[in-house]
Design brief:
Elements: E1 7-9, H1 11-18, H2 22-32, E2 38-41, H3 42-49, H4 56-66, E3 70-72, H5 76-89, H6 98-110, E4 113-116, E5 129-131, H7 132-136
Parallel strand pairs: 1-2, 1-4, 2-3, 4-5
């Protein structure tokens, strides 16, 4: 793991952490311990916050975790890059979503790898994507 450049995680990793996945827990603990820099997009946070299984206990727990992660906001450059990707791919792939486009845009523009449980959803974005289980092993 590269502490210097770090990685970007998406809502699949956050949701896995919430559900007790060992790989996701190890990754978050490594961030808390300062062993790795992890970034997370505000769009990924919005995604998990909007789930019907996300309760007050989850809100409190994740609020604490987010103090150890770098929260990256959507800015004009990312919005333009993500919008261009969506325009290019949404007609050919109905699984392309706003979160994936934004996370991929952040990754490309920041020079970071994406760690996710659904790497296939990022293939068309020309970004470096790693499956969570393989990244931890």
């Amino acid at each position: 793991m590269n502490q210097e450049t770090g990685i970007i995680i998406d809502s699949t990793v956050l949701n896995s952490y919430k559900n007790g996945d060992a790989c996701a827990r190890k990754l978050i603990i490594d961030a808390v311990d300062g062993d790795i820099n992890i970034s997370v997009s505000t769009v990924s946070i919005m995604n998990i916050w909007s789930r019907d299984t996300f309760d007050r206990k989850s809100e409190i727990g994740f609020t604490g975790i987010f103090s150890f992660l770098k929260i990256i906001s959507l800015d004009g450059d990312v919005a333009r890059y993500a919008g261009g990707s969506l325009r290019e791919y949404i007609e050919t792939d109905s699984l392309v979503g706003v979160e994936q486009a934004v996370v991929a845009a952040h990754a490309v523009l920041m020079g970071k790898d994406i760690v996710t449980n659904e790497p296939d959803r990022y293939v068309q974005f020309n970004s470096n994507v790693r499956f969570l289980g393989n990244y931890i092993d």
